[in-house]
């Protein structure tokens, strides 16, 4: 019986603050589907509160090339040691293991930040393999979290060179129409605006943060393409933010972020576009013509819904 029990431990050094990992795994695991979408497809709170011992979360993930599910209870949180322990109580893993738990421990030794994963398990029978590929998944998750936060820090460092352009337009239809279209159904825009030739889902799901979209459009008389990620959706403020990371526009700008914000002031409905950008060099023009394209989209969508 003793041979059926085991423990795997693996440690990896990271370049970002160890507190980032503890905070994310303790209180914000639902963000993992955005940070590592190839590994974690969804993470939902099933019972309790985020960051609380005894809470139950459900996770949809890919393991060994298969879509899997797991329901876990947060068995322990140690703030002093920066440790979080998850015990699996339901799902695919329990078809192989009588019990299995995963612990993430983060620490700083001098200038070195370390993330240690520990998997404790008991096999249903001796023919079951050790969960080495599950450990690989945990290590890949760590790499993805590190990469995500290094990119965020790089973006923060660029903010001093970032410029902003804002333009608002009053519309005669309810503002929710625009928020809904750009959040959930941007693929419909090509059927409304003739200069938008296609909006395709490249990765993720419509209406979710972290989703990647590819756009084909005509701008300044030329057919162009861009790929962006849905960086933020704010239901309370009715805003959607897209961060462009690939395409023609990146030939001119180091960073390019587009935000749509819908606001209702009494009987007035306003759509506001905000462009935040950093030029590759000072000779690059400000994106006035791109803003005009966005404003024209709003006018055409308005006309379409007034018909």
Automatic annotation (TrEMBL):
<dbReference type="GO" id="GO:0006952">
    <property type="term" value="P:defense response"/>
</dbReference>
<dbReference type="InterPro" id="IPR023393">
    <property type="entry name" value="START-like_dom_sf"/>
</dbReference>
<feature type="domain" description="Bet v I/Major latex protein">
    <location>
        <begin position="3"/>
        <end position="152"/>
    </location>
</feature>
<dbReference type="Pfam" id="PF00407">
    <property type="entry name" value="Bet_v_1"/>
</dbReference>
<dbReference type="InterPro" id="IPR000916">
    <property type="entry name" value="Bet_v_I/MLP"/>
</dbReference>
<dbReference type="InterPro" id="IPR051761">
    <property type="entry name" value="MLP-like_ligand-binding"/>
</dbReference>
<feature type="domain" description="Bet v I/Major latex protein">
    <location>
        <begin position="160"/>
        <end position="307"/>
    </location>
</feature>
<protein>
    <submittedName>
        <fullName>OLC1v1013368C1</fullName>
    </submittedName>
</protein>
